[in-house]
Amino acid sequence: LLASAMPGEWILRPDVPSGDSMVDVVHDVIREEFFDRVHDELPYDTEFINEAWTELPNGVLRIDELLRVPAARHISIVYGQGCSKITAIRKASELRLTEVFRRPVQLVIQCKARSRS
User: Fold this and answer.
1) Is 27 in contact with 54 (CB distance < 8 Å)?
2) Which parts of the chain fold into alpha helices (H)?
3) Which residues of 41-51 are buried (b: 16+ CB within 10 A; e: fewer)?
4) Contacts for 86 with CB less than 8 Å, ≥ 6 apart
5) Of 22, 59, 100, 103, which has the fewest CB atoms closer than 10 Å, so is most exposed?
6) What are the tens digits of pLDDT across the range 66-90?
7) What is the CB-side half-sphere exposure of residue 112 using CA atoms within 13 A?
8) What confidence tens digit (pLDDT) does each residue in 40-55 have?
């Protein structure tokens, strides 16, 4: 196995669990930031879905994520007044992911409901 390894830089830092996929790491970071801000207001069955993973020509990693909440009434809770909560979640997650992946990260987060109630 060692003989077949390609030389190069590590994709993840040593403090990131190697058993997790990069998408799992993204979801863990976003989930933590998300529940730090809306834990009292939303049920824990919010889904975190990766919609796109794009390496841009300028070296930036663009990650498009969908947060699927149980009902339409939860969307305004996630966004917050003037989109303050979703913006804070995005910015904090971008900073942490930039550290983890050692490259600039552009995170795009949308929120949709599973049902219309």
Assistant:
1) no
2) 22-38, 75-79, 84-101
3) ebeeebebebe
4) 78, 79, 80, 109, 111
5) 59
6) 999 988 988 998 999 999 999 999 9
7) 7
8) 777 678 899 999 999 9
